[in-house]
Amino acid sequence: MRYTFFFFLLAFGFTACKKDKYTTAPQISFKSFNPAEGSNYNTFADQPVMVLEITDAEGDLGVSGTEAAKVYIKNMLTAKEDSIAFPDLAAAAKSTFKAQLEVGLFTVMGGRNLPTNQRPYSDNLQFEIYVKDLAKNKSNVILTDKPFIYYTLP
Predict the structure, then answer these.
(1) What is the pLDDT of the chain when averaged over all its residues?
(2) I need a labelling partner for 17 at 20 to 30 A (CA). Which of 71, 77, 78, 110 fits?
(3) Residues of 59-80 as b/e, b for ≥16 C-beta within 10 angstroms?
(4) 108: pLDDT strictly greater than 70
(5) Where are the domains of the chain?
(6) Does residue 53 contact residue 31 with C-beta atoms inside 8 Å?
(7) How far is CA 122 from the centre of its chain?
(8) Cβ atoms 70, 63 nearer than 8 A
(9) E-state strands within 66-112
(10) Considering only 15-19, 28-32, 39-43, 67-71, which range has the smallest mean pLDDT?
């Protein structure tokens, strides 16, 4: 009886610890939007930014030769898609990699195309995001849990 209890306690300990371990495929989670206040998002410099948290067991994110790990983003309202390559992370990337990632949304912005007489209008944008590392491991696919409000002006 005592050994059975010890076995279940040990098995529970292993399953509980697995949740915190880094995985071969990158894992991402949505943190927040950082809008450019007072901006109409017409230029790359005044784009809003999405903040993600990313973890990876091998840290194989960044650039290696001609290959680059990428972040893939899709605007769920307009179906605009884009991929953004990671910068060179050789100095920072290591096993058990964890970082905050800021992703510019300029190329996937935009709401519904409305005639001028129906403007101004606001759209609630949501984005689908995933990451592929240098080994082509695909992360979990997430949908932003907080909408980004985009105003269409005349």
Answers:
(1) 78
(2) 71
(3) bbbbbeeeebbbbbbbbebbeb
(4) yes
(5) 21-152
(6) yes
(7) 24
(8) no
(9) 67-68, 70-75, 81-85, 97-104
(10) 15-19
In tens, the pLDDT along 84-102 reads 888 877 777 677 888 898 8
For residue 12, give the H/E element and its range.
helix 2-18
> Any residues with CB less than 8 A from the CB of 9 and at least 6 apart, and which?
none
Q: How far apart are the first and last CA of the chain?
A: 76
Identify the helix (H) or strand (E) that includes residue 152. strand 148-152
Q: How confident is the model at residue 119 (pLDDT cuts 50, 70, 90)?
A: low
Fold (CATH) for 21-152 = Immunoglobulin-like (2.60.40)
